[in-house]
Specification:
This protein has 175 residues and is mainly α. It has five helices and two strands, in the order αααββαα. A two-stranded antiparallel ribbon has the order 1-2. Helix 1 packs antiparallel against helix 2 (42-71) and helix 3 runs antiparallel to helix 4 (131-165). The relative contact order is 0.11.
Length: 175
């Protein structure tokens, strides 16, 4: 196995970044739904701290993935994959990145505008309270999460569809 991507296969670094992101998202999404239903108290504060830590980890990981993609391009799809599929695959990947960044940035801004202090890149940040903006960013955070869930389902269904109907083993490229 190669460390970096080749023309036909993802390298170890890309695979690790992909699967760590996936695992963190599969923890984070249910954690967020659980958090919404909790009453204020010690359990909520603990779960919220975990949610923020995982969310910031996802944010840093996505930034790292995007920087890595700049210097290490994505392997090409099989020539048998028609242009429409290539376009849809690229669109889904771009939308996944945009949505994840939207979720994390709106979550950060929601907390900051609600008067909380966050440590971002080893620096404590606190800004002027603005509860209206806090609510707006909360709404963006929630809507973006639902969009992310749809995009993840599309992503997974595309892999299954390629395996069942096109006899392409796309998943093999990521293991």
């Amino acid at each position: 196995m190669h460390v970096n991507n080749t023309l036909t296969e993802y390298g170890l670094i890309s695979k690790l970044l992909h699967w760590i992101s996936a695992i963190l998202l599969f923890i984070q999404i249910p954690l967020g739904f659980y958090l919404v239903d909790l009453d204020f108290g010690p359990e909520r504060l603990t779960v919220e701290d975990i949610h923020v830590t995982v969310g910031l980890s996802i944010f840093y990981l996505v930034i790292l993935r995007l920087l890595y993609k700049i210097f290490n391009p994505t392997p090409k799809l099989e020539p048998s994959v028609f242009k429409g599929q290539k376009f849809l695959a690229k669109l889904n990947h771009v939308m996944l990145y945009v949505t994840i960044l939207s979720i994390t940035i709106s979550g950060i801004l929601k907390k900051l505008f609600n008067g909380e202090t966050l440590t971002i890149i080893f620096k404590k940040i606190k800004i002027q309270d603005n509860f209206e903006l806090g609510e707006l960013f909360y709404d963006i955070h929630v809507i973006s999460n639902y969009v992310l869930i749809v995009l993840i389902i599309i992503h997974i269904l595309a892999v299954i569809t390629h395996k069942l109907f096109f006899n392409d083993n796309l998943l093999k490229r990521m293991f």
